[in-house]
Amino acid sequence: MKVLIVGANGQIGKHLVSFIQDHNDLEAKVMIRKEEQAASFKELGAETAVVDLEEDVQAIAKAAEGVDAIVFTAGSGPNTGADKTILVDLDGAVKTMKAAEEAGVKRFVMISSFDTTREAIQSAPSSFAPYVAAKHYADEWLKSTDLDYTIIHPGALSNDDGIGKVNAASRVERNEIPREDVASVIVATLENDATIGKEFQVVTGTNSIKDEIDSL
Question: Long-range contacts: 113-116, Cβ < 8 Å, 24+?
Fold first, then answer.
């Protein structure tokens, strides 16, 4: 399976590319914003496509040609304003879904926020609410498509080393999770077609990643 990773230069994305390139049945194609970001991915043997998420649908669809799945793990980042949040986390996500449809790619894995319910938007601090709202509507748009989607809602992200143990379900108690383990969860999701049409929260826990994903 060839996987286009949108947001490959992010912290989760970098772990994911490395894991996929070490996988016997998966192959990574990375979508990055700048050519200077390409060197480390080329060293891993990954194909690169330089496309900014603020470009049009056709540019993203061109990057998606020839792949079997798309993982959307891009984000505007914590230091941008609400305008970039809308353009990347919402519009960029929706354009990527449309690009998947144009390119004939059915499998789509979305890395969302831990809680994107309407209640989460209403209760979020004013500085965080635009991000939650963007993720909420991106998730809703994805669920309205005919794509074979999975939506992953990770807990608070950390840069700790992964431990390979998580709790995953439609609702779990809030906790942290290393970005490295989120990348492993994505790989397990891609390996398991039973995750299609599902969304789940995932945090550090007590069970192996494979067992938790298989039990969803």
Answer: 113/153, 114/153, 114/154, 114/155, 114/156, 114/174, 114/201, 115/153, 115/201, 116/153
Nearby residues of 183 by Cβ (< 8 Å), 6 or more positions away: 12, 15, 16, 18, 19, 162
pLDDT value for 78 = 65
Tell me which residues of the chain have a pLDDT lower than 70: 78-79
149 a catalytic residue: no
| Token pair for 116 | 């994107």
- Give the global pTM: 0.96
Which residue spans within 43-147 are E strands per DSSP? 47-50, 69-72, 107-111
- Cα angle value 213/60/90 (rounded, 5°): 65
The CA distance from 38 to 10, in Å, is 13
Interacting residues of 125 by C-beta distance below 8 A, sequence separation 6+: none
CATH of domain 2-214: 3.40.50.720
User: Per-residue pLDDT tens for 79-114?
Assistant: 677 888 999 999 999 999 999 999 999 999 999 999
- Catalytic-role residue among 72, 131, 137, 200: 131
In the block, tokens 């992010």 appear at 10
pLDDT at 114: 97
Where are the chain's structural domains?
2-214
Q: What is the DSSP letter of 74?
A: -
